[in-house]
Fold this protein.
Amino acid sequence: MKFKFFILLFFLSTSVFSQSVRLDGVTFLALDRQGNSYVVCKERVNKYNGNLELQASYTSSFGKIHTVDVSDPFKPTLFCKDFVRLMLLDNKLAILGNPIFLPDVHILKPSLAARASENGVWLVDSYRRQLVYLDFTLNTSRIASDLSVYEGVPNYAVERNGRVYVNFSDDNIAMFDKFGALLRIIPIKTSGWFEVQDDQLFFLSDKKLMCQNILDLGAPPVEIAQDVELCAVAGKQVLTYTRGVANKSLLP
């Protein structure tokens, strides 16, 4: 795929900066806490530094890359849903070891993957409607939670601060502990993607980037940006994609 790039930098008197890259066919975005951006275009992921200069690329041999989890920036985790493969890369996007064929560890139809903090990954097996923990070290899996009791289809998941968050298409986000026990249900209407930072939940709704304090659900969410197709948030940085342009800026 041929990419067209341009860099636009400008600084405002408030010291807020914005940078942009023009790309075609973007399907997923990620940001790590070191300031690197990851842009997925179907079966390829590109890594950019803090100045949005291309640093590395990786092309999957197993079709479209569904998600990239960079919770650990030294070991990005790639999930290729169609070919039920999970891959670990190094910080230069070189593959580490062999791709994991998930049915080999008894995960028959994985639909979501989220990196776990304890050298593993959380997976949603849509065939059995289960939240499963896979240990990379032992290459074994265990059932953490039965999701059949929840309405809606799981469509996004992350782990943050020892909590696992799974979004369901019925406008609810379920929060589990590290053993898979349900802690609470967060009634948020989101397009799928979301991010959790401390007590702040960032999410997309009707192409708007919103922020909700999950400790005060009675307060209305705050609108941050409009006309956003894809998004990623890490620290004070936000990466958005709209009509062929990926834009990186600081949160207000």
